[in-house]
Design goal:
Blueprint: H1 6-15, H2 20-35, H3 44-50, H4 55-63, E1 74-80, E2 86-92, H5 94-106, H6 126-131, E3 138-143, H7 153-162, H8 167-176, H9 216-223, H10 225-237, E4 241-245, E5 248-253, H11 258-274, E6 285-287, E7 294-295, E8 298-299, H12 309-325, H13 327-334, H14 339-356, H15 358-369
Antiparallel strand pairs: 1-2, 3-5, 3-6, 4-5, 7-8
Helix pairs in contact: 1-2, 4-8, 7-8, 7-9, 10-11, 12-13, 12-14, 14-15
Length: 378
């Protein structure tokens, strides 16, 4: 990507007959963006050129003029959640994926989220999130309901605008990074004001972040900077500690009582509502002193996070019986649909353990690699 050069930009603009005052305004805007160590982009056509995509494709995605085509421009499918129910995944078409990938790599990944956010941030790990709450008295765990799906394109627009990008381009990039969910109810998801709409850009519906787009994780953190600031202030005022891992909010108190914990929970819900979120009451937990505390899969009762015993025992069980009875028989006995499914599951769990405890992870990995996977042409 070519480095921003105001002199060359102005010189080329004048040679093409552009007004000098107009070019000055663009240079000012370019300098503002460049000061943030972000790529200077002025228009959708400019974005298409930088991302090696077609302007006609991007314009079509922004205008949403092909929404009548089922699933366009995403392929949507559901997967089962561990806790029951289904999670919808939306995979963008190759052209849309290309521009989303460029935006993510060149813009979003250069912006630092709030310090309380631990998911989707390079060099921030799940163990660091858990470490903040080790040895606590009370632990308050709140899950944000439909996290990505409740972040609107208006909030995404504000992210790009606050980074210094032109208003129109911010709107267009917000459209490129969001998806309209058909038949969604609520005023928040309807566009009632088309008074100043550009021809072809008018749409009755407001999009939200799709789960499956490369831009959604980073955008969710940047949209939540204000939320994280407010929740951090709440934690400080209540003598608590706060951190967030994607849609999992955690507050911990060194001491206190149930009344204090309930008060904090109520205040969290109020703040969430102000950002268009609501808490999932089925997953909310207020865990008192002395009770077992597990946060993002880690036991935080002691001074350092630990892999829970049931996870360690489960891996040992799978390794033992896969070796004793054979991989295929064990898969059938334990209800795995395929050997590759079992391979991916167990490899993933061991990888997770390694990220927390490298010694334990290496031991499990050695046993895992000693199994006769070669017999199955994986």
């Amino acid at each position: 990507m070519t480095q921003w050069n105001p002199n060359l930009f102005r010189k080329e603009g004048l040679s093409k007959g552009y007004d000098s005052h107009y070019l000055t305004r663009l240079v000012e805007q370019g300098e503002t963006i460049n000061e943030r160590n972000l790529p200077v982009v002025f228009s959708l056509a400019h974005l298409a050129n930088l991302s090696h995509t077609l302007y006609s494709d991007l314009h079509g995605f922004v205008s949403r003029n092909e929404l009548e085509r089922k699933d366009f421009p995403y392929k949507n499918f559901s997967i089962s959640k561990r806790t029951g129910g289904k999670r919808w995944i939306s995979i963008p078409t190759p052209a849309l994926m290309a521009v989303q990938y460029w935006i993510n790599q060149n813009i979003l990944n250069r912006v630092i989220p709030h310090a309380a956010a631990y998911a989707y941030v390079p060099k921030r790990k799940i163990i660091q999130h858990a470490q903040r709450h080790c040895g606590s008295g009370w632990l308050i765990k709140i899950d944000i309901k439909d996290f990505f799906g409740n972040i609107s394109e208006r909030q995404v627009f504000d992210v790009f605008l606050n980074l210094g990008y032109p208003k129109l381009l911010s709107f267009e990039m917000a459209r490129l990074c969001t998806r309209v969910t058909p038949k969604r109810k609520g005023k928040r998801w309807c566009n009632t004001n088309n008074e100043h709409t550009i021809t072809g850009y008018d749409s009755k519906f407001v999009g939200s972040l799709p789960q499956g787009a490369p831009t959604s994780p980073a955008l969710s953190n940047l949209v939540c900077i204000g939320l994280d600031k407010q929740l951090t202030s709440l934690a400080i005022s209540e003598g608590a500690t706060y951190s967030r891992y994607a849609d999992d909010i955690c507050f911990s108190l060194p001491m206190g009582c149930r009344k204090s914990a309930l008060h904090i929970k109520k205040e969290i819900s109020k703040i969430l509502h102000g950002y268009g979120f609501s808490d999932n009451s089925k997953k909310t937990r207020l865990i008192p002193p002395g009770a077992r505390k597990v946060l993002t899969g880690l036991n935080v009762n002691n001074d350092t996070p630990r892999i829970p015993k049931e996870i360690r025992d489960s891996v040992r069980m799978h390794l033992y019986y896969a070796k004793k009875n054979g991989i295929a028989i064990h898969c059938k006995t334990r209800g795995f649909r395929s050997v590759i499914g079992f391979y991916n599951y167990l490899s993933g769990v061991i990888g997770y353990i390694y990220s927390i405890d490298s010694n334990m992870g290496n031991k499990f990995r050695k046993e895992f690699n000693s199994l006769p996977w070669v017999d199955f042409s994986l």
